[in-house]
Model the fold of this input.
Amino acid sequence: MSQVQPVGNLASLEQAQQLGLRPEEFEKIKEILGRVPTFTELSIYSVMWSEHCSYKNSIIWLKTLPKEGEKMLAKAGEENAGLIDIGDGLACCFKIESHNHPSAIEPYQGAATGVGGINRDIFSMGARPIAQLNSLRFGNIHNERTKWLVRGVVKGIGNYGNAFGIPTVGGEVYFDDCYQINPLVNAMSVGIAKVGHTVSAIADGPGNPVYIFGSATGKDGIHGAAFASKDITEDSAKDLPSVQVGDPFWEKLILEASMELLETDAVVGMQDMGAAGITCSTSEMAAKSKTGMKIWLDKVPMRQADMKDWEILLSESQERMLVIVKKGQEKTVEKIFEKWDLTYAIIGEVTDSEHVQYYMNNELRADIPAESLVLGGGAPVYERAYTEPKYFKDIQAFQIDNIADCSMDEAKQIAKWILAQPNIASKKWVYNQYDSMVGTINQTTNKASDAAVVKVKGTDKSIAMTVDCNSRFVYADPFKGSMMAVAEAARNLVCTGAEPAAITNCLNFGNPYNPEVYYQFVYAIKGMGEACRKFDTPVTGGNVSFYNQSSDDNAVFPTPTIGMVGLIPSGGKQMTLDFKKEGDLIYVLGEQHNDINSSQYLVHYKNVKQSPAPYFDLDQEYKIQQALLAAISHQLVESAHDTSEGGLFVALFESAKPNQLGFHIQQNNALRKDAYLFGETQSRIVVSVTPLKKQAFENLLSQHAITFDCIGHVSNGSIEINAEQFGHTTDYMNLYENSLGNLLES
Amino acid sequence: MKVGVVIFPGSNCDQDAIYAFNNQFGCETVSLWHKDEDLQACDLIFLPGGFSYGDYLRSGAIAKLSPIMQHVIAFAAKGGLVMGVCNGFQILCESNLLPGALLHNDHQKFNCKNVWIKPQTLHTHLTSELDLNTAYKIPIAHGEGRYYCNEETLALLKQNDQILFRYCSENGHIDASSNPNGSLENIAGICNQTRNVFGMMPHPERAVDAELFNTDGRLLFEGLLSALLK
Done:
């Protein structure tokens, strides 16, 4: 190997610690190199071994998640994003990723660049993005800073995604005090590729030129990965240069150029530049191919004149791609770059050294075995200690009998209150700022369903997609709560008539060095694995975001956001959530329980913050979903809508609202009224059925041996519960439609 | 009959327009690159939505300087049919092919939703198949869609019957509450004096496919395309 000592000041242990490395990690670096690293080399290790890039504190547990499945075309972690076969020679490529830390201090750019990054992950694999979703969590909505964060994040996602030109078709927005300092911004992108025409992040073929194309490199985002790997504190605003700045126009150009590049046979491998910039893409590609690379940093197109070698290496300037081109095909690719007026340069070549070697002005500045930098190679792997959180005792102490049930009169007040709650009211103030229709594939614009449904042009198939996680449930019970997140995602897909296919996850937690936080992480992974095995929805990849806390006392709720995709097969029909006709029968599928645990009603109306997760049974859930899929495919169902936040009343209202119908229902059990109407027991679906099909529908449910209850019928607009008048659906419209916007504009 | 869809860097509704003309209406459709110096003998030029050149200066302000637009301007001057939707409408105004301007929405936010529009004249190819008393559901998606012009221009638009559409409620009422962006007199679309250049903020190409459950936009294209057959 190269015996040349790279030029530059030698690094010290103190510097290593300043860059976030631990003393034992500094020792390990010296051992790998057989010498003391230069400062530039140390910088490289510090970002590649950061939590964000190396998954060092999570990978052991991530490996326990199910990754196998007959539809899987790429295994989790093998590629930039998951890839599943959807037939007709097409593959669906999808992934979710967090951009929490940048969004906490600069919401507009933080959120915008999150959208940019996740879309690059999709198209750098050769898939054209077709739809986007996002999952957002903020603190108390009455807080002025929260409002500023919401406005900034939503504008950032909107301005970037709208200009990029991919529809934002779904998402979720939650407010809870636990996200006051650390909002969560998780963005998901879904793309379509031709099977066999995808591209990998590899660097085969010594002698092949390495191109960079897209934006020029500046000083923005340096140490972004390291920044994302520590707690948010008062000093975090000083990390502002760690936040990148996005330009959706460039993103659109590099998307189109990338698509054209892949139509040639000139491309060996491609990767976007995300966390840790040039360092990460060059070392990962070389490591994957067991090759090396020589990179001439001074050849990188730069935005400013005085950039140091390590600044160029670590810059997280956005909208940049790295592509390895077959030698001799330079003209082919350069013609495409020039067509799109993109900045580009050859910055290096593939070698057989298995080292990444970075030069500046003909001086070797860093020389590192590629393998030693990457996840699955030399990057550290830790098994962290975990202990059961102390707050579990408070949760177990909850007694429903200490909470007075509501009277029917009070229920009428609660009905109005609950539809105006920020976690329940319509999110249209948010989603109207996103272009949801560009691409002309969105099938839920004019027919609302529990999940977004988009058509795959050129086929008669549709893909359904959703993001879900009720993090309060995960907080109350990480194992069950995480299963519930997977189950809810699957239930939402099934309610559209789609068969769940696979998931991507975004694991948002506090500091992994806190054993109680790590307990939440471990049990959330265990629950997720069990649920994914049950639904046969393998995990195709995703992202881990730790350090979502400002101190050990205020970590965010454990929030393992699930992004799930499913397929409505050829000949299948999209199921919608709206009641269709007065007189149709209303059923609740699934068990009903005397359960107000962790419900929005209990937490925000009764002000009881600590209670167990609601009732949930994984096997029952699966049976109910299978029964509903069968009922939909036999065309026995007019509408299907799952009950989630706000319970049965909210689900009924949401089904009644689109056609301004109503519902008359009768409680057929001895449950508490609050549990019946506002409890959040899982695995329940509100279904409407035309009276003609009553018998056939009930027969089918009986064959599937699931619990169901015919609770009433669809009315022409009036709402009646146990013969009590609750007014008219239109009485609640303004509350439901405008409460969130009114709060945010005030 | 041949349709040309102009693609500027940053256009993002170009493929939707091509899909509509090609797959929904069976027209021969070609894409025209912004650097092209030739309209390929097209009978109709369509300027799609998007963010041409990023629209960082003022929507459409750079696009009007592109090589292809000089040919579009000459084509329109000779009576050729030109239609612009959203960013396309902005470009037509910036190019002085249509009067007035599109300002930031009065609420200062991007806004994407279904709205209803009512035709104000049937004496154009674009509106010839429509009904004056029907509200058509056509989506909008823009941040800068507030139509504005000075009083003299507005008087001329009215005098020459150039106002194509006004925003209205689902029931067809043209009022302030159905105006999604603060447009002058709820104006959603206009044509030029010679009635061969059409601009509108709502996206009719997003309302032509039965599989998306809204086909209110079809009649606009059918009117326009039947004019080409004559």
Remarks:
- The CA atoms of residues 298 and 360 of chain A lie 5 Å apart.
- Chain A touches chain B through 32 residues (CB under 8 Å).
- DSSP finds 25 helices and 25 strands in chain A.
- The mean pLDDT of chain A is 94.
